[in-house]
Amino acid sequence: MTNRLRALLAEGGTAFGAWIMLSNPAGAEMLGGLGFDYVCIDCQHGLLGFEEMRDILLALKGLPTTPIVRVPSNDASWIGKALDTGAEGVIVPLVNSKADAERAAAASRFPPLGERSFGLARGHLALGRNPDDVNREVLCFAMIETREGLDAADDICATPGIDGIYIGPSDLALSLGVPPMLREPPPVHAEAVAGVLASCVAAGIVPAIHAHSGVDARARAGEGFRMVTCTSDAAILAIGGLNELGAARGT
User: Fold this and answer.
1) Domain count within the chain
2) What's the pLDDT score for residue 119?
3) What was the pLDDT predicted at 123?
4) Phi and psi of 214, rounded to 5°?
5) DSSP-assigned letters across all residues of 64-99
6) Which end of the chain is more exposed for a tag (fewer CB within 10 A), N or C?
7) CB-based contact 84:120 (threshold 8 Å)
8) Catalytic site residue 210?
9) What is the pTM of this model?
10) pLDDT tens for residues 3-28?
11) DSSP code string of the chain
12) The one catalytic residue among 45, 124, 210, 212
């Protein structure tokens, strides 16, 4: 079986995705059918535990999008459980060193490439049962979002089994002493982002990042990012609701 997101990236394409923060399988199913290349279920900051993640993965099955999960931490049991439940890739937060990257990569793949335990549950429905095929198709993204991660970016990017780096702009901003969520971050933040992008390009792995909007996502793609999250279910609900309320009240 083929990981659609991996195939798109391997062909040189740019992937645009949506982020799931709310524990609503029907909403996730609706987003999954809109044409996003991937849908990421956020189990770190989203309002989701294992059961909600499971139900959303069930809702996304069969839709033309690749389901991935941001796990709560660099924890082998969580990474394995997300993949066993049907995720085709994981985003691992707070990877600050080569050792952290090696731990995330090992948890994502079966021996001899890693240390993932074989017990697929429903994971075989996505990528099959053959360990070699699964190892080839699954995706592991490490998040660089701290000063320590920036300092170790070249080593993290060069770690076997790390398919890409997902930049967390807000935590990176905090680590650099910059307020998070600024639409136009100061040069120190922009330089840090550009540095990670360059490290990814040098290592031949996928640079990925979180964007504020579709317009921002397009700009990030123009900078060279190959995988960009455009929006989230929470943002769509909040922005859409405020827009319609403003229109109704004439404000």
Assistant:
1) 1
2) 86
3) 83
4) -65, -40
5) SSEEEEE-SSS-HHHHHHHHHTT-SEEEES---SHH
6) C
7) yes
8) no
9) 0.96
10) 999 999 999 999 999 999 999 999 99
11) ---HHHHHHHTT--EEEEEE-SS-HHHHHHHHTTT-SEEEEESSSSS--HHHHHHHHHHHTTSSSEEEEE-SSS-HHHHHHHHHTT-SEEEES---SHHHHHHHHHHHS-TTT-------TTTHHHH-S-HHHHHHH-EEEEEE-SHHHHHTHHHHHTSTT--EEEE-HHHHHHHTT--TT-SS--HHHHHHHHHHHHHHHHHT-EEEEE-SSHHHHHHHHHHT-SEEEEEEHHHHHHHHHHHHHHHHHT-
12) 45
């702009």: which residue's tokens? 169
Long-range contacts of 215-223 (CB under 8 A, 24+ apart): 216/183, 217/16, 221/14, 221/16, 223/194, 223/197
Q: Which two tokens stand for residue 248?
A: 């109704």
Structural domain that includes position 238: 4-249
Residue 200 binned pLDDT confidence (cut-offs 50, 70, 90): very high
The CATH number covering residue 213 comes to: 3.20.20.60
Residues contacting residue 231 through CB under 8 Å, at least 6 positions apart: 18, 19, 213, 214
Are 114 and 107 spatial neighbours (Cβ–Cβ below 8 Å)? yes
- Contact in structure between 88 and 55 (CB atoms under 8 Å): no
